[in-house]
């Protein structure tokens, strides 16, 4: 992540506000301008580390079986989540954004991903020995969430899926 000179404003432990910041992001399916609002539409940049992983298991007679997984590690809530595909990531300048800090190191994120792949493999297969886990690639990216002011109460909108929910949840 890089930022324009003089554009950052401290916001405490919850993140850093930026007038403009250059980030690697998962491209939004819902743009900021598409969000219905009675006022300002803010932005929260949420950090993830995404892995492409393979789990290989030796099987008697049948040979090796390899299962592929995409793991998205939520670096704020410290969770490993299963994803359908490895996302496209693009550099983008994001205006008026609150950038949340990563709560886990790269090493901790990798360990969370490894544990998740191990558990997912054991749920689906019954290997005789522990599976061998390899990461073929990884990327750090931010997912953007839009904060919209509305008369009935503010909402948060997931820019990738388009889901929205009241902000006070």
Ordered list of secondary-structure elements with their pairings:
Blueprint lengths: L1 E2 L4 E3 L5 E10 L15 E17 L7 E10 L4 E5 L6 E10 L6 H19 L7 E17 L6 E4 L5 E3 L3
Parallel strand pairs: 4-7
Antiparallel strand pairs: 1-3, 2-3, 3-7, 4-5, 4-8, 5-6, 8-9, 9-10
Q: β content, as a range?
A: over 45%
The low-confidence parts are: 1-12
Q: Major sheet, described briefly?
A: 10 strands, mixed
Euclidean distance between termini CA atoms: 29 Å
Tally the helices: what do you get? 1
Percent helix among the residues?
A: 10-25%
Coarse shape: elongated
Q: Find the structural class using helix and strand composition.
A: mainly beta
Annotation, overall tally of beta strands: 10
Protein name: RNA-binding protein
Describe the 3D structure.
- The chain is mainly beta.
- The chain has one helix spanning 106-124; strands at 2-3, 8-10, 16-25, 41-57, 65-74, 79-83, 90-99, 132-148, 155-158, 164-166.
- It has one domain (15-159).
- It contains one helix and ten strands.
- Strands 1, 2, 3, 4, 5, 6, 7, 8, 9 and 10 form a ten-stranded mixed sheet that branches.
- A hairpin with a 5-residue loop joins strand 9 (155-158) and strand 10.
- The longest helix has 19 residues, at 106-124.
- Residues 1-12 have low confidence and may be disordered.
- This is RNA-binding protein.
- It comes from Halomarina halobia.
Quickly list its features.
169 residues; 10-stranded mixed beta sheet; disordered N terminus; 1 helix; mainly beta; elongated
Brief overview:
This protein has 1 helix and 10 strands; from the N terminus they run βββββββαβββ. With 169 residues, the protein is mainly β. It comes from Halomarina halobia.
């Amino acid at each position: 992540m890089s930022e324009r000179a003089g554009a950052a404003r401290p916001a405490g432990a919850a993140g850093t506000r930026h007038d403009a910041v250059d980030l690697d992001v998962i491209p939004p399916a819902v743009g900021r301008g598409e969000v219905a609002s009675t006022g300002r539409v803010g932005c929260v940049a949420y950090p993830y580390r995404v892995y492409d992983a393979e789990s290989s298991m030796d099987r008697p007679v049948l040979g090796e079986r390899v299962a592929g997984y995409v793991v998205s590690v939520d670096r704020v809530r410290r969770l490993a989540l299963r994803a359908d595909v490895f996302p496209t990531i693009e550099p983008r300048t994001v205006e008026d954004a609150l950038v949340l800090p990563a709560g886990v190191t790269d090493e901790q994120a990798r360990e969370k991903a490894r544990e998740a792949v191990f558990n997912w493999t054991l749920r689906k297969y019954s290997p005789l020995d522990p599976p061998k886990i390899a990461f073929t690639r990884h990327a750090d990216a931010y997912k953007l969430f839009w904060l919209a002011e509305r008369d009935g109460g503010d909402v948060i909108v997931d820019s990738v899926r388009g889901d929205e929910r009241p902000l006070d949840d």
